[in-house]
Amino acid sequence: MAQAAAQLGVSQPAVSSVIADLERTLGVPLFDRSTRGVKPTMFARAMMDRSVAAFDELRQGIRTLENLADPEAGELWIGCLESISALILPPILRDFMRRYPRVTVHVARLSPGTPEIRELTDRNLDLVIGPMARDRATDTELACEPLFDIPLVVAAGARSRWARRRTLDLGDLADEPWVVTPPECRIHIALREAFGAHGLTPKISLMTFSIPLRMSLAASGPYLTVFPDSIRALKGYERSIKILPIALPAPPQPVSIITLKSRKLNPVAQRFIAHLRDHVAAPSC
């Protein structure tokens, strides 16, 4: 109670009085009290869960008012995978920030799977850019707008002996060391499935989400790796790695805009989503 009072800038009796009033109004205890302190009851936890959306709507309302007062300013919170933040997002953000120079953009680098959805449902992000997790594909809480597909490519060092080959198949690379993403990632799954279709298992030497680390190891040899095809957008990539002439079949998993259906986004987020759609629709894309 003392810590809460200090954080709110009020007296401890004032905090205790508010809690007591809430308990009388709701007719249930919100805290279990003991000599060691207080702990929230199941009733308090239920109220906290419900309060997330209410306080978020208040924040969104404030941000909307601020944006109406100054349409060129505001804040934007985006979550995305490293491959998207490193390879796809830079030109999109560069154009957006040039158009809205007083908007502050926050980009959170996320891991594959459910963490990005949790951050979104906790309303810490305005939107997520990336593939929808397979186990959330039918989630009625989420809105998913596909933007484009990104195939996968196999890469080796630009001076590797494999870089000079015009034809290759996975059987040729079965005994080579690979640096790939962790098992929950689409790249790792696709590589194992492709080798498995030939009755083979890839020799994985290192697992990391880091694109610079995978590129560095591949460039120095003898390691092979897999990237999204968008690696071609990285300026000068061909000086370090060579994309090999080998098909890596993988089910389509489009990059999408993921938002909460029940949440009305502030004007800055709405403008950015419109900007994303325009970028994808442009002939150069």
A few lines on this structure:
By secondary structure, the chain is an alpha/beta fold. It has nine helices and twelve strands.
Q: Quick one: CATH class of the largest domain?
A: Alpha Beta
Assembly category: single chain
Through-space gap between termini = 56 Å
Q: What's the domain count?
A: 3
The strand line-up of the biggest sheet is 4-3-5-12-6
CATH H-level homologous superfamily name of the largest domain: Periplasmic binding protein-like II
Counted beta strands? 12
Describe the structure.
The chain is α/β, with parallel strands linked by helices and 285 residues long. It has three domains: 2-40, Winged helix-like DNA-binding domain superfamily/Winged helix DNA-binding domain (Arc Repressor Mutant, subunit A); 53-149 and 253-281, D-Maltodextrin-Binding Protein, domain 2, CATH 3.40.190; 152-243, D-Maltodextrin-Binding Protein, domain 2 (3-Layer(aba) Sandwich). Helices cover 39% and strands 23% of the residues. It is built from nine helices and twelve strands. The chain has helices at residues 2-8, 12-26, 42-69, 82-87, 89-99, 115-121, 186-196, 211-220, 267-281, and strands at residues 31-34, 37-40, 73-81, 102-110, 127-130, 142-148, 152-157, 177-180, 203-207, 224-228, 241-243, 255-260. The strands form three sheets. The chain has a five-stranded mixed beta sheet with strand order 4-3-5-12-6, sandwiched between helices. Helix 1 crosses helix 2. The protein is elongated, with a radius of gyration of 25 Å. The termini are far apart.
